[in-house]
Amino acid sequence: MSQQIVKLDDPARNPETASSSTIADKTVPSIPTNDPKDASEGSDASSPTIYPTSLPLALIFLSLCTTTFLVALGGTIIATAIPTITNDFNSLSDVSWYNSAFSLTTCAFQLPFGRAYTLFNTKFVFLAAIAIFEVGSVVCGATPNSVGLIVGRAVAGIGGGGIFSGCFIIIAESTPLRKRSLFTGFVGGTFGIASVVGPLIGGEFTTRVTWRCQHPNRCRRPSNRHLLPPPLHRPLSPDLKSKTSWEIFKKFDPIGTAIFIPSIICLLLALQWGGGQYEWSSPRVIATFVCFGVTFIACVVIQTMLGEDATVPVSILRQRSVIGACSFMMFGSASFTAVVYYLPIWFQAIRQDNAEESGIHTLPLILSLIIISIASGGAVVAVGYYTPFLFVGSIVIIGAWIGYQIIFGAGIGMTLEQCSIAIQTALPEKQIPAGTSLSVLVRSLGGSIAVAICQNVFERKLRSNLEDVLPGVDLSFISGSGATTLVQKANAALGGDAGAVEKVLLLYNDALVQTFLVALVLAACTFLMALLVEWKSVKKEKREKKIGDSEAEPAAPEEEDVKSEKA
Predict the structure, then answer these.
(1) This model's pTM is above 0.90
(2) Which domain holds residue 216?
């Protein structure tokens, strides 16, 4: 039988022998160990870490991929069902809330969930987020009216916020740093698939069954809680075991959270309302922007006063790589969202594709994103550095404007998931949940901001073009026109003049091109943000060699002598 003899001579690390000046020998059963290169790769590791392997790791990975896919569907699957829903509920005025209710709560609850992942067991917090998401899905599927659907979407968004950040946190706790980019690439690819196929699946459900079956929990499926094995458990931190419930509650920064959530909601509401439902100069839009500014400043002040006990510790924001990676993710996500949102509109409005054909024509983008995301993750494992991929990827994204979706998808797949690895490499293990939640927040915000900006640019350019080329023509038919109904409405408004209708299509195309130019500018900004990200290796031996023995923390305690003997 194999045993390990563990020698411990540090009283601080071994309280049971604190009163003795002699070295205690303890015999313990041998346990499965990882590759030595994988041990203690966290930046603040003080003892060897045993990561799950084989079947437990496969179960964790399967759980994360399926959960990510279902939750990402929740954000996009409803798009093609909105016309049917408005007919069922007679609720055309609520259309904007069906989409925004989910995104509002997803963004607003990112940081509170990050704090929960920091303080409590990761598995239980993740399962709680899944439960909240499922409750919201049930409400959406069973609701008898429009208000119930909006409430259900909001509740599902809360759970979705915890799930998105939880997936990356679980990857960080389940895999060594040098292999983490590969798993992150797979999960990121799964998210990309769901984002693109969501509207297609929603359309099939709506056409062939009912829109109520879109919501994942309405379909019988095994719960992902059975796929998360016990090794994922992280014990409650020692400083919390002696705390009362009220003291633990205060650890959540209730005042800062209560200010932060409405702050984010005000920002997103202003972006959704401005230029669309209301003019940018309307009192309602101005008021929401002012509320955002005041509450955001108050939130920053509170976080600064709380120091390391804040929801987002100031030390995280002082990390150059965190600022660079988060900024990169915001601009990159904004560029990606703009293209994914408006490219199908171009196919349907200009090329006269139907929804299915439009989805097929966007497959090059999503396939290249998935393949390159996984491949770049494997390349980071082999090379050890993620920063080169940020530079190359940002240049490739800009090169996409030659007209190739494949190039754009490759650039996005090469970069966004590596930003998460950059943040996890720069931060100590105890701050990874907060840093991860911050990155998911800015990624979501980037997409929301991009859609608001592009929609405003598109509408202004289209109306300006039409007023110049078609003077005296009533342009009211443009308002509320969808991609597939524009030609019919233009034909009716212009009395069947084929030449005038052709002009409308050309001007519509010109307006859509402006949105892609906005995405181009956002993509160009990612290169500048990549300059802020430090060159750090995910391989333990390279990191230790770079920082020097005098500054590096030992991968394992020097006083700990592990030997093997056979009995």
Answers:
(1) no
(2) 64-235+249-253
